[in-house]
Amino acid sequence: MILPFFVIIPLGTAFLISLLGKKIRNSGDILANLSGLSLLTLSLYSIPKVFVHKTLVYKIGGWLPPIGICMVLDGLTSFMLVTVNLVSSLVAVYSISYMEKYTDKNRFYTLFMLMLAGMNGIIVTGDLFNLFVFLEIASIASYALVAFGTEAEELEASFKYAVMGSVASSFVLLGIALLYSYTSTLNMADIALSLSAKPAGMIIGFVAVLFLAGFGLKSALVPFHAWLPDAHPSAPASISAMLSGVLIKVLGVYALMRIFFNVLGINSGILLVFMFLGAVSMLVGVFLAIGQWDFKRLLAYHSISQIGYVILGIGLGTPLGILGGLFHLFNHSIFKSLLFLNSGSVAYSIETRDLKAMGGLREKMPVTANTNLVASMSIAGIPPFNGFWSKLLIILACLQANRFGYAFCAIVASILTLASFMKVQKYAFFGTLNEKWRRIKEVPGAMRLSMAALAIICVAAGLLLIPLLRNFMQAAVDVLLVGKGYAQTVFGAIR
């Protein structure tokens, strides 16, 4: 069974890098990239496994759940594993050159692998307390990585992020404790069974509020977003790409989806809250982004806006809405990671994030400029790039569900996103080259390779809507649509 390796490989790699990093030159680069490649291979291997078996359960130590701890592989698990490990493997390649300008690359890779182990653990676990443990592993590693530059700005942002993250974790832990006191079990499938047999009292409503606040903070939904605009610009570009690309989706969006749909059970009231928070996040995020001149801070606000699209799609609760939401989750992971890597490349060459100080960089940095153009068109929803298709699905799902106001909000946010990224293109890459940058050159090969690969995926990801490839996403949609039937599916898969 492949499931334990999603946690074992990155944890083992983190241990080896901390042990061998200073003794063997470049061992951190080699081990981190081998680990990333092997995890990507395993996640791709999980896709046919899901097609054949639908759901697979790994019993840790051979103990049967709900007494023993289990790991679960289903369509949603496989979809999230591919998304996370695809982005992390390309970020690891980018970091080979980019992290040279920081003092301790091996320590960076150790924390990077711990964060990846935490994210993979959250995705595969079938146990609520283990979800919390892995959430803390990923969170604590990310706090340290935000502060990696050790300048005043980074340390302040990391402290703010750590305080807000600790508050979120406290909400989640309290919610888990109350749920355990009510159901006497921590196994997610068993909790779903127990709640189906009991009347949903006030305590479940209170737990739902705690989880919404806790995971809402982790996913940076408005009004829980205050930590993100500081944390993302301060972190190294590799970490900004991971935070915005996958971390907020796993610690926030995935946990919300899994718990509300498959454990607590979804109802029209919760879906209305999801849709409202999604629409508010879309609009507030993009309005705050438009006035920014700091390249990375502008991108950070767009993360809030784009997560709004994902939550809106999922909040519709319809097959088309959930498909659009999950597809946008995947697409955003790709184009937002690429945008942060682009911003890192610019800062790597000219050491500024101020758009007004740039200008004409296309002449000296053609790969960075062209891949940024692809990512900008993708996030703005311009056809034929991937962002267009997922936004179109979400808007069509809103119209199908007679939610015309939400469809209008999605269209307005997309137009404003286009305006914001036209500003980025104009001030950073087009126009006449600033005389100060006459001597700069394109970034090293490893960084160009990662950016090019992500740009190609931005163009090709629309193919996931082809019926044969769409099964990859449809399997994830089906897991959410089955709701608390997840319990029977998991216990039925135990052999």
Q: Can you offer a commentary on this structure?
A:
It is a single chain. This protein has 495 residues and is mainly alpha-helical. It has one domain (5-493). It contains 19 helices and 2 strands. It has a two-stranded antiparallel ribbon. The chain is globular and about 70 Å long. The two termini are 13 Å apart. The model has no long low-confidence stretch (mean pLDDT 87).
What secondary-structure arrangement, pairings included, does this model have?
Layout: H1 5-20, H2 27-53, E1 56-59, E2 70-73, H3 75-98, H4 105-124, H5 128-146, H6 152-183, H7 188-197, H8 202-219, H9 228-234, H10 237-264, H11 268-290, H12 295-316, H13 319-350, H14 366-380, H15 386-400, H16 404-429, H17 445-460, H18 467-481, H19 486-493
Antiparallel strand pairs: 1-2
Number of strands: 2
Read across the widest sheet, the strand sequence of neighbours is 1-2
Helix count equals 19
Strand content: under 5%
Specify the biggest β-sheet.
Answer: 2 strands, antiparallel
Q: What integer value in Å does the Rg equal?
A: 21 Å
Q: What structural class results from the helix and strand content?
A: mainly alpha
Globally, the shape reads globular
* Tally of separate domains: 1
Question: What are the secondary-structure elements, in order, as H or E?
Answer: HHEEHHHHHHHHHHHHHHHHH
Report the helical percentage: over 70%
How far the N terminus sits from the C terminus, by CA atoms, comes to: 13 Å
